[in-house]
Specification:
mainly alpha, two-stranded antiparallel ribbon, 4 helices, 2 strands, 50% helix, elongated
Length: 90
Amino acid sequence: MYGPMKDSSSNEWRIRTNNELGLLFQKPNILETIRSRRLKWAGHAWRSQNPLLCIVLEKDPAGKRPLGSPRMRWEDLVKKDVSALGGGSD
């Protein structure tokens, strides 16, 4: 099912691409699903009246960051998702 298939034009075996498998099984794109759920949660979190959640979203934590390249934060991912959809000026 997922394995190689025989190409009708060249009569050789080849591996199916991800796009072919997606069309074959009609499954939703996992990246789009993750992005939509992340944006739903972001809207829920920003509308929340929970004081702890408001502190976490609005204030910068004190302390030193570890050495090396900074890790991607959740807020950065949400901003990237919004800009990919053509919204926001940030």
